[in-house]
Amino acid sequence: MNRKDFIKMCGLFGLSMPLQGVMNACSSANNNSTISGSFSGKVIIIGAGAAGLASGYLLSQQGINFQVLEASSTHGGRMKRTTSFVDFPIPLGAEWLHSSPSEFTSIVNNSNVQVTTQTVGYNNQDVVGNYNNGTYSTSANGNPGVDRKFINSTWFDFFDTYIAPSVLPNTKFNTVVRSINYSGNKVTITDTNNVVYEADKVIFTAPLRILQEGSISFTPQLPSNKLNAIRTAPVWGGFKAFIEFTNKFYPTFLTFADSQTSEGQRLYYDASYGQNSNRHVLGLFSVGKQAEQYQNLTGNAQRDYILNELDQVFNGAASTNYIKHIVQNWNEEPHIKAAYLADNAPTSISSTLATALNSKLYFAGCAYTREDDWSSVHVAAKSARDAVREVLS
Ligand SMILES: Cc1cc2nc3c(=O)[nH]c(=O)nc-3n(C[C@H](O)[C@H](O)[C@H](O)COP(=O)(O)OP(=O)(O)OC[C@H]3O[C@@H](n4cnc5c(N)ncnc54)[C@H](O)[C@@H]3O)c2cc1C
Fold first, then answer.
1. What is the pLDDT of residue 64?
2. Which parts of the chain sit beneath pLDDT 50?
3. Cβ–Cβ under 8 Å, residues 252 and 289
4. Does the beta carbon of 237 sit less than 6 angstroms from any atom of ligand 1?
5. Ligand 1 lined by 171 (C-beta under 6 Å)
6. Among residues 21, 10, 59, 15, which one has the least CA distance to residue 37?
7. What is the pLDDT of residue 2?
């Protein structure tokens, strides 16, 4: 069975799942085990995205002293969203739940908390359009798979409601870590303002592209297998756009001949799907090589390129119905700089990157995982559970 067949099994949005992980991700990944241990020192977490927030939350549940250092002025990382575009929140990064809603319960890790976040799955009547060699055709989405849209909510909102309140009081924003010394009894961290922080253990969650750029130095140097994994890891850039139209002239999904290749992916989709809203918003998701055509343009030229692409498929309906749009170029986010580890990367890369060093420096995040599935929020949260379990042991 090739990758495309796997994707069909999981529905169209197997798109962001690595081949090796698709089978896992099709079933629920509710694989918690008890988090506890005898450790009682201080932990510093670098980064306040999904993995950093989940790590801090679990440490707070255990009563462990922790501090989060976040480079940007806000939390959430690649779960960024905007509430100012239309009357429902727009996810500029992570959009779908690539797993069962039971994953929310795993992340919250507290049976007394009732999670009210609502999601909706796709159904086999949803229309998939395909534009290929100048011909547009449609079919029903025969096998809708596991992917779910948040209803008037996002991954960010879920974290903001259930996870972040325990973590934000211990979070220092606008703090860019530039060096980590894990050679002694304590780990010493220095930020770009030369402020020094000390902890017994550190959980590192900054994105892989940040490690690739070498802007954080490690003492002792990272071991050669990790350096090799960092150097060879294929990391895809990412670009999303959301366009509001006066009418819905498009199907649930619009695919192209290059929607799914070994070099990247792209897809237009109904971003209003399942929302309690009358607004018509079309989303564009693109990563890897397929994102570059959009990333290479800016402003009106970028907008016109997108509208022109859609006009060709829908006989000019895009320009006629256009109201406004927003874009998110992940390569330009100063402390993230890319989308994620390519879906077709070898599993050895993320598992090597997940390995802890000297029982002091731990790694959590969507690229630092022993799962054979990466590039998803639920995987980042699972890696945080693994890291915290190791820290406490
Ligand atoms: C376009 C796109 C679409 C996606 N779609 C989905 C989807 O539909 N569903 C899904 O589940 N996932 C999706 N993902 C993936 C998902 O967003 C990520 O897997 C997840 O959010 C990563 O969380 P993280 O904590 O590992 O990293 P991040 O969210 O990147 O968090 C890392 C944090 O570290 C901070 N940082 C960086 N450098 C430093 C430093 N030197 N010092 C201190 N802090 C630093 C950053 O500012 C950031 O806040 C998508 C991602 C993209 C880009």
1. 97
2. 1-11, 13-32
3. no
4. no
5. no
6. 59
7. 28
Q: Return the CATH fold of 3-392.
A: FAD/NAD(P)-binding domain (3.50.50)
Structure tokens at 381: 């949260």
| Whole-number pLDDT of residue 37 | 85
Pocket test for ligand 1, best of 67, 242, 377 (most atoms within 8 A of CB): 377
> Are 363 and 203 a contacting pair, CB within 8 Å?
yes
- Picking from 24, 42, 332, the residue whose alpha carbon sits closest to that of residue 203 is 42
Beta carbon of 11 within 6 Å of any ligand 1 atom: no
What the block records as the tokens of 119 is: 């999601």
pTM: 0.94
- What is the 3 state secondary structure string of the chain? CCHHHHHHHHCHHHHHCCHHHHHHHHCCCCCCCCCCCCCCCEEEEECCCHHHHHHHHHHHHCCCEEEEECCCCCCCHHHCEECCCCCCCEECCCCEECCCCHHHHHHHCCCCCCCCCCEEECCCCCEEEEEECCEEEEEECCCCCCCEEECCCCHHHHHHHHCHHHCHHHEECCCCEEEEECCCCCEEEEECCCCEEEECEEEECCCHHHHHHCCCEEECCCCHHHHHHHHHCCEECEEEEEEEECCCCCCCEEEECCCEECCEEEEEEECCCCCCCCCEEEEEEEEEHHHHHHHCCCHHHHHHHHHHHHHHHHCCHHHHHEEEEEEEEHHHCCCCCCCEECCCCCHHHHHHHHCCECCCEEECECCECCCCCCCCHHHHHHHHHHHHHHHHC
- Residue 28: what pLDDT? 37
